[in-house]
């Protein structure tokens, strides 16, 4: 009987721990995300959607900005999954590579801009908990994630563009 009671208590303790985590997020991270989303929406409204669209269009003109600036703007301004809609600015032959770059950036941006991808926030917060336990600053981690993310999305964009061009050429032959 004691064994069954222990299992029942353990089962409930799991949910109590989850509820405690959820309550801390309701009081902490969720308001932060809402405020960040509001701020980004406000910036877009202040700048003007047309201006943001023009900037995105200009970012498609060369390979460097196409796979660095454009995905960063898309993820920052629109978040996941709406960021992929910025693919409308790139030529059809660049769409797969843009998508690869954008989808690869939804995690690295989370440390600095958690509103961009709530789903990835769980991963980042787990890593952040370990960093905090070690007594290391989170700001350094967030900046490093962001900068390495930009390098990675550039490489992925270029490689995917080359692979797509190769496969398309083979298909036409």
UniProtKB/TrEMBL annotation:
What keywords are annotated for this sequence in UniProt?
Answer: Membrane, Transmembrane, Transmembrane helix
Q: What Gene Ontology terms for biological process does this UniProt record contain?
A: phosphoenolpyruvate-dependent sugar phosphotransferase system
A matching Pfam family:
EII-GUT
Can you name a GO cellular component term?
membrane
Q: Which spans are transmembrane here?
A: 22-47, 67-87, 145-167
The keyword Membrane belongs to this UniProt entry's keyword annotation? yes
Asked whether the keyword S-adenosyl-L-methionine is assigned, the reply is no
The entry's protein name is PTS system, glucitol/sorbitol-specific IIC component
Q: Which organism is it from?
A: Propionispira arboris
